[in-house]
């Protein structure tokens, strides 16, 4: 294995030198801008340093392995390999944007029908796809933000600071590259508007058109881990139905384990003048439902537990297994790391949960988890809560406003 540090006046030139000295199979491990020359920190010149290594043996051919294999199969594919490899390392930075936005096209010989599995078996396509992904990640690296147009680089950094998943950022960048041949001269505000539109489209796919409760719905079940604000959220939702929709509402709680949980819900029930039933078992739930059968809508506050454990998920499912038509909401706190939210959401993929409520929007400045969930999971994004006040501090998700938050345009 050979390792080298290449220093050049520009990043494209450094990449070209890496290829010339270490071959096409060279792997870049680090890049950075450095200052050279000068005296006492003055009159320095910026250069670019690339650290790379090659696993080829001494004297071995620098030609990529996939090119050698393709020579035995097709001279035509070999030419494509040579042209594509050269194009990646010799294009100027502003030309990279257009290159990465183009789909890979494979020209087949008309006299030789290609099997359906050719694309999967062609090592050239696999290598080119891997190379493009590597270069896309490289272009978005914070140390090389200057490779992207200034407006796009600024937006990418904003999304990263908000905790937006790298996969989503790559998708957004690819959308911009497909829409524009060059963004060098695009004004920053124009770039921001377009990215806000893309982010809005991702979120809107998961936001229901309306949060109105159907007349046929008889029960609202609210589920979530300990401390996310389920009880307060139920009070906010119930108040909407009592005061604005003029429905006869009742409440049930199964949360008999948390200190003062029942008393808290009793207080809200007393303010709204609605009945509250406390249940501990499935049999008690059936009796409570019979007792409350003449009410239009019943809200059930479930026990907050560690739902990563199977036994707790199964215990909740017992209470959700009733004959009434219902909506099931999972409550999540935006102060929770997205990695932990993923664990929880993965466990609820096959559950009766259809909708999500994000709480504590006002207690964080990072909102990337919302778009991460919208992109990766099938749940509807119903509400966010923005404070402790009942009933006003709950609202439907506004995709445009949230997109502006993610780009740092709202605070």
UniProtKB/TrEMBL annotation:
<dbReference type="Pfam" id="PF00448">
    <property type="entry name" value="SRP54"/>
</dbReference>
<keyword id="KW-1005">Bacterial flagellum biogenesis</keyword>
<keyword id="KW-0472">Membrane</keyword>
<protein>
    <recommendedName>
        <fullName>Flagellar biosynthesis protein FlhF</fullName>
    </recommendedName>
</protein>
<dbReference type="InterPro" id="IPR047040">
    <property type="entry name" value="FlhF__GTPase_dom"/>
</dbReference>
<keyword id="KW-0813">Transport</keyword>
<keyword id="KW-1003">Cell membrane</keyword>
<keyword id="KW-0342">GTP-binding</keyword>
<comment type="similarity">
    <text>Belongs to the GTP-binding SRP family.</text>
</comment>
<keyword id="KW-0653">Protein transport</keyword>
<keyword id="KW-1006">Bacterial flagellum protein export</keyword>
<keyword id="KW-0282">Flagellum</keyword>
<dbReference type="InterPro" id="IPR000897">
    <property type="entry name" value="SRP54_GTPase_dom"/>
</dbReference>
<dbReference type="InterPro" id="IPR020006">
    <property type="entry name" value="FlhF"/>
</dbReference>
<keyword id="KW-0547">Nucleotide-binding</keyword>
<comment type="function">
    <text>Necessary for flagellar biosynthesis. May be involved in translocation of the flagellum.</text>
</comment>
<feature type="domain" description="SRP54-type proteins GTP-binding">
    <location>
        <begin position="217"/>
        <end position="408"/>
    </location>
</feature>
<keyword id="KW-0969">Cilium</keyword>
<keyword id="KW-0966">Cell projection</keyword>
<dbReference type="InterPro" id="IPR027417">
    <property type="entry name" value="P-loop_NTPase"/>
</dbReference>
